[in-house]
């Protein structure tokens, strides 16, 4: 008898849309799903800080190699900024290291938000982050009181809007940002425009691209029926059908070229029965490499 919580051979690769609770690490979610469903290969498409809750996309089986599908997608968050307080982690889970009594008002907040709304700027990642320096994650160095200033990275704040009035130096917000944006750093950067300190009080990721929190379930509520199979993510992809001889070569990892296909976009290779065989991406002009096998 096969246990109910073991993946069947016909449904062994795909994604779970998980609601991560606050005070959990992304690794905690991966570990709990591994344990719940007796899985070997489990990963995620992008870390959520322990403070944050919301959408975490979990990759299962071969789909752990498909995290790149989500790399370029914007992220949408709701949360609360707190001003006049400085934390070593840039959020309220850290050590409070300074305070000030700058008098803030709605107009000052709006002017500061406007400096970032629909803007691209150079953002410095926080010391307490998973960015690696010489093979070590920054937060490991930070806990050893080693200070390293990382070079700033270009990020885009596509949308930034206050969702409440200022109260007790706190204000709720919604923002949509590009890949690699740290909302904790954004809190600090917004505050610096007002000559004060800023930190993140709470955060929820409500969307990754078009994938919203409405798709999510908590780990406890999750079942295997919630696994979204890898093939469903390629429905709109261009497709080409190759003969049996070429299909054998494709399965062995052959590069394709203009003799099989001329395109500037990734595509799916299918056999004569329309089975998905491989996902190919552009290597150089008129040359394509296999990035994923079904």
Automatic annotation (TrEMBL):
Any one GO MF annotation of this record: RNA binding
EC number: 5.4.99.25
InterPro entries, alphabetized: PsdUridine_synth_cat_dom_sf, PsdUridine_synth_N, tRNA_psdUridine_synth_TruB
Occurrences of domain Pseudouridine synthase II N-terminal (ranges): 34-183
Record's keyword annotation contains tRNA processing: yes
Catalytic activity field: uridine(55) in tRNA = pseudouridine(55) in tRNA
Active site (catalytic residues): 49
Keywords, sorted A to Z: Isomerase, tRNA processing
GO biological process: mRNA pseudouridine synthesis; tRNA pseudouridine synthesis
Presence of keyword Isomerase: yes
Function in brief: Responsible for synthesis of pseudouridine from uracil-55 in the psi GC loop of transfer RNAs.
Similarity field: Belongs to the pseudouridine synthase TruB family. Type 1 subfamily.
PANTHER family the record matches: PSEUDOURIDYLATE SYNTHASE TRUB1, TRNA-PSEUDOURIDINE SYNTHASE
Name of the protein described by the UniProt record: tRNA pseudouridine synthase B
Organism lineage: Bacteria, Bacillati, Mycoplasmatota, Mollicutes, Acholeplasmatales
Gene: truB
